[in-house]
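Quick start: load a record and inspect it. Here is Histidine ammonia-lyase:
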Amino acid sequence: MIELTGSSLNLAQMNDIIYKEIGVSLNDEALERVNKSRAAVEKIVSEDRTVYGINTGFGKFSDVKIDEKDTKALQLHLIRSHSCGVGEAFPENVSRAMVVLRLNALLKGFSGIRAEVLERFAYMVNNRIHPVIPQQGSLGASGDLAPLSHLALVLLGEGFVWQDGLHVLAATIWNEHGMSPIVLEAKEGLALINGTQAMTAQGVVNYLEAESLAYASEWVAAMTMEALYGITDAFHPAIHEARGYPEQVDVAARMLDWLKGSRLTTIQGEKRVQDAYSIRCIPQVHGASWQVLGYVKEKLEIEMNAATDNPLIFDDGDTVVSGGNFHGQPIAFAMDFLKLGVAELASISERRIERLVNPQLNEGLPPFLSPEPGLQSGAMILQYSAASLVSENKTLAHPASVDSIPSSGNQEDHVSMGTIGARHAHAIIKNARNVLAIEALCALTGCSIRGAEQMAPKTRVKFDQLLEIVRPIEEDRIFTPDIEKLAQFLV
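Running the structure step on this input writes:
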């Protein structure tokens, strides 16, 4: 079990929760804060104080006073009316992350929600009850209103949850578990949907996948270097220390480690004086992508533990302040930045693929790695596919965060579009993984031709692992299954 406190959740723990299905528990001190905050809301209702979202309408309706007898109906109407997401559902791992992140944010004790609701969230995580949440429909300010409303619907026994890859009515699931749906009290609907947890959940999954892919890109590039008799002098520590970027230094050191003991790599002047940039500048380019990952990690771990509700309740209810912590701009920027970092991993990979298949550049390997040039095309169209994916990434990398469309009668007149950025970032990661899968297949073939027995011990391990998944290009075949298998291996 991972204990949630509202302030200490990190990406390593999220990895365990999402991919290893570790359960969660709720910190006692956090629950005390939650109970105090809830008592403050109940006091506000009993005193008939006018506070946004408790006894007023929402957005442009914030000036409309709601009678005490209607406060429950207000929350129910809120969730139903805001559940208007469209498009394909978020993957189940993103839905799971979303539940955890919303739970963790509410545990901070600034939102006035009952502990009973949070305990139900924990039950959902621990019993794999994951809401079906449409991906499209969030502006990324006032929170991820539409996605989080679909999440909240499940608590109410409405909407759908994932079960064995299918969408099952939430009411059916609660019945199977012998539990009743939650009936929302004052402010609880607003507390559930004001937040950035959709973009942040997708962002967490993006980061974890991108980090794994960035490490994989290094050993794939190392195999390509061996297939092309690459020059290792370019990774000399002095070069990278002279520039001073720690990430660049680290990539160079890892590349030397992968290639240690190789009899296929060369030194400058042995075959040529220097390599092309896609080989020689691996530490500089990959290192810059690692800088991006570092930035994204920092912002995600702040946001994962942030209070993003509105209004927020302080001083046992004496201070209730409407603000804008739901605005997703920090994560919108981070996701747009992540798109650039991952797109460049794919871009430089595609250039290495070109060097592997181009007979003018591949140091004597068969043209297009074809077993029978002319009769068989070999890897010719593999490079086309990689080029197409890289080009598509260029359009996806357009920043979502520079766009804004006013909403709610111009009350909400600047929004982040952060959830769009997060979704596009995931598409870029998927494309980049396929590009690197193509490079891995080409590098596997090149090293097979050169002689795997001459490879470095560490890259030879990867070579053998790849051989368990696919064959080198020994004859023309349908390559799509190979790409899919290798992409899965790179996850």
